[in-house]
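Today's session is about reading a structure prediction critically. Students often jump straight to the picture, but the first step is always the sequence itself: look for stretches that repeat, for charged clusters, for runs of hydrophobic residues. Only then move on to the predicted structure, which in these notes is written as discrete structure tokens rather than atom positions. Here is the chain we will use throughout the hour.
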Amino acid sequence: VQLVESGGGLVQTGGSLSLSCAASGFTFEGHSIGWFRQAPGKGREGVSAISYYDGATYYTDSVKGRFTISRDSAKNVIYLQMNSLRPEDTATYYCAADTRPVDGASWDWFRRGRYDMNYRGKGTLVTVSS
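Below is the predicted structure for this chain, in token form.
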């Protein structure tokens, strides 16, 4: 099982990036998916997630209205579209997948960096310059 992120890079404040995460060895179908990030010197923060059970989508407050999580089942890829980027979005971004559904309680743990999904990638660095 492997998750590989791509699409990170350097962008100016206000710019956009689209992150992708490709899976091998399993399919995202039937899995909850998520993105989390870790900034230099800071703890892990859940950014967004989709529950496989009911399709509910979750976003941490700081990215609501700017980031969009999605999946392409045919390609077995998940995405994180990031618009209106800010310097505080600078971090390494990781995709993750889990066989368990995400609900309000587990989302809160994931958002706070205290919920480990079954699978995670190695990350892609996003740097937003001011």
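Discussion point for the tutorial: The mean pLDDT is 96.
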